[in-house]
Amino acid sequence: MPLAQTSVPHNTISQRTSFAENCALDNAQAEVVQLCIRLCLPLSFVVLHAMLFLDQWMNFWRMWFHMCSCPLHRFFWLFSSSKLLHCPGMASLTAWSLAHKRSTGEPGGASKKQAGGSEKFLMKGVQLLAKLSLKNAMNIREIQSTVLTTVILNQDDLYVQAATAATQEFNKHQDQAKAGNGEPPAGPPHCYAWIQMLELLVTDGLAEEEKKAVQAFCSEHPSPEQMATVVHVCRVKKAFQKGKTKLCLAVHDSAEAVLQLLVKKLAERGGELKRGQAPKGGLERELRGFLDQLSDMLK
User: Fold this and answer.
1) Residues near 229 by Cβ (< 8 Å), separated by ≥ 6?
2) Pairing assessment for the beta strands 149-154 and 244-251 based on DSSP bridges
3) Continuous segment of H or E residues that includes residue 148
4) Is the separation of the CB atoms in 278 and 144 below 8 Å?
């Protein structure tokens, strides 16, 4: 007998067809996802690398324009203020830039430090001491202008060399006496410089009457101790101008005639007699600048 044919239900066939179609669809979607992953991963690395490169490049140019103090650096800082780019190492550069602006007076620098409390009290005391020092220095310059006779000479002038040599010789004997070799020189050192210049003055083409006046004065004061009673200042100092020297002199009224002869001879040799109050020295100018900064902090 022929085998009986078995019939398959129609709904079973439909189910199998749907399962096969779903499996094929899932495989296609998986391939698409895998393809997207293979494409997106390299692309994401490229984008990340580009962002890092852009960050480094922009930081380099921001640093360059800040170090050059170029006005274009404002554009880069405005751009960086949007938080699109951030470099933690730029904090120290920002502090340097603000300090540079404060020192140069450029706009945009941070506000100056303000003192308060006990710090302000102490700074106020320092301010008063600085003002008092400047006032005393000005008064001393005024007194010196009325007491001292100042002549500007070349460093290689014979009178300057004579006074310098006499002072050095005095210091040499003084050091030997301290070491136990002989007696210390008598009298102050400036009198030795004064005597040496007068000895040179007598041989420097004075008129006969002038020469006799200088010799008579030296005879009245033959020793440095006696000369110190009428000669108060005879000092060689370095002048502000390069290659120049200041000769400061101050004597008693009884030696004024001899002083005028010496100053006259120095003027003939190219010396410049200075009159009036001397300008501020380096320490006074430096203290004046410090006082200005201190006053700004106390405002």
Assistant:
1) 221, 252
2) antiparallel
3) none
4) yes
Confidence check: pLDDT of 106 > 60: no
* Residue 7: predicted pLDDT: 46
pLDDT digits (tens, 9 = 90+) for 196-214: 999 999 998 888 999 999 9
- Specify the pLDDT at position 39: 58
Return the SS3 of 274: strand
Name every residue whose Cβ is closer than 8 Å to that of residue 202 and which is 6 or more positions away in sequence.
Answer: 211, 214, 215
Choose among 151, 164, 161, 167: nearest CA to 266.
151
**Helices and strands in the chain, H and E counts:** 10, 4
172: three-class secondary structure by DSSP: helix
- The DSSP element (H or E) to which 228 belongs, if any, is none
Q: What is the DSSP string of 76-143?
A: HHHHHTTTSS--TTHHHHHHHHHHHHHHHT-TTPPPPP---THHHHHHHHHHHHHHHHHHHHHHHHHH
pLDDT digits (tens, 9 = 90+) for 53-100: 677 767 766 666 655 654 544 444 444 444 444 444 444 445 555 555
Residue 194: pLDDT band with limits 50, 70, 90: very high
- Judged on CB neighbours under 10 Å (0-12, 13-18, 19+), 95 is exposed
77-86 — which CB contacts under 8 Å span 24+ positions?
Answer: 85/54, 85/55, 85/58, 85/59
